[in-house]
Amino acid sequence: MELLAERLNFDYTLSLVADGKYGIVDEETGTGTGMIGELLRCEADIAAAALTRSSARQKYVYFTTPFMEVGLSLFASKASAEPYSIWSFLDPFEMETWGVIVAAWIVFSGLLLIVHRISPYGKCCEDTHDVTPYTYSLYNSFWFFYTSFMQQGPEGIVFASGRLLLVPWFFFCLVITATYTANLAAFMTLQTFSSGIQSVDDLAAQTEVIYGTVHDTSVVQFLEHSPVETYHDMYEFMVNTEGAMVDSSKEGIDRVNNGSNYIFIWDDASLKYAASQQPCHGQVIGNVFSVSGYALAMSQDMSDIVDISQEILELRDEGKIDDLADTWLSGGSCGDGSLSLGDVASADRVSVNQMVGVFIILASTIGLSFVTALVERLVWYYKLKKAAADEKKVNVSNGVTLVDKQKERSMLSNTGTSGIEISEEEAAWV
């Protein structure tokens, strides 16, 4: 208004509207509320605010050229964001998908073992003509496919039938790994609303989360008279749901910032400004819909509508209005607070809480490996003792004892003659 007053050389006095509303007109009575009502009653000459230009209002008052393009957006509470699970790294795939992957691992492991048995080149020593026992076990097959799936470069399979079997498996690993990586980035960084609402269609399709706007505003009129069924359904929900409507935009924004399970529908410029300010509890979700513009409203008795509209156009062309918007609407401590579809770059960083499951698996696997090592040690010791006991039984049955062998060795050593030597197992037993 100050720039327009300087260019057109007029004086003005600012006053707040009595009821604090932007205003609408009752088509049956022709009376209006808020700023629109004051213009109709000639109590004011110009309404200067975040007033959207609509066909319903323009029937009764004049509007200048819009000085800012705006639309409607959804304002939701960050406090309602879905809490992350310690197993968040499993979220990119459903449990059925993980089950299919494990099943494929088991099937391919078994198939490779069968092919290894059938092929004459699948023995442990392919470069010799000796017929050697098969050393490739099911355990080795499982380990081979696990390491290849984890891209750790397992030992190569040199026979042709085995390589042919690996072709589809490697392709399977490539697709699964690429898909998992892409989805993991989105799941771990993109903060979404708890009910999965990211658009107007999502909002209209559910009834668990209450949503609304300021009653007796152009937003209500737009939703009520819109030919789009989705918007009309939203209007029916709001008028029939207790607590959906609020008395002012401040009340709706405060309700969201307080962590309520509520979504406020309002002009995106006002919502982005609110999201950028403390306490930083709100965020703008989805894309802008019902694009319109902020404009000055004037009573129909005003004859300067053309001159003011021309000056607004010149101010826009000179970038003066953009400078004002950057000065007053940007630079908040919380950023712009927007969260649009696919906006991964502006999402929160991955926290330690989201990766706890990975560290649990890491720690449990380390513990399991040590337990396995102890079991292997006990089994090895048991086999060693059993072998020594079996050999003792054989010697006793043949009439020879370890003591006799030691005496004989002692006698031979005294004469300088080499004789019977005691094995390490026998020495250990003694």
Walk me through the topology.
Elements: H1 2-8, H2 34-40, E1 46-47, H3 55-58, E2 62-63, E3 68-77, H4 95-118, H5 138-149, H6 160-189, H7 200-204, E4 210-212, H8 218-225, H9 229-240, H10 249-257, E5 262-267, H11 268-276, E6 282-294, E7 297-298, H12 305-317, H13 320-329, E8 338-339, H14 356-397, H15 402-415, H16 424-429
Helix pairs in contact: 4-5, 4-6, 8-9
Key terms for this structure?
430 residues, five-stranded mixed β-sheet, alpha/beta, rod-shaped, disordered C terminus, 49% helix, 8 strands, three-stranded antiparallel β-sheet, 16 helices, single chain
Description of the structure:
By secondary structure, the chain is α/β, with parallel strands linked by helices. The chain is built from 16 helices and 8 strands. The chain has a 5-stranded mixed beta sheet with strand order 4-5-3-6-8, covered by helices on one side. A 3-stranded antiparallel beta sheet has the order 1-7-2, covered by helices on one side. Helix 4 (95-118) crosses helix 5, helix 4 runs antiparallel to helix 6 and helix 8 (218-225) crosses helix 9 (229-240). The radius of gyration is 40 Å and the shape is rod-shaped.
Briefly, what is this?
This protein has 16 helices and eight strands.
Mean pLDDT: 76
- Fraction of residues in H or I helices: 40-55%
Strand tally: 8
Strand order of the largest sheet: 4-5-3-6-8
Give the oligomeric state of the chains in this entry, treating copies of one chain as homo and distinct chains as hetero.
single chain
Query: How large, in whole angstroms, is the Cα Rg?
Result: 40 Å
Straight-line distance between termini: 108 Å
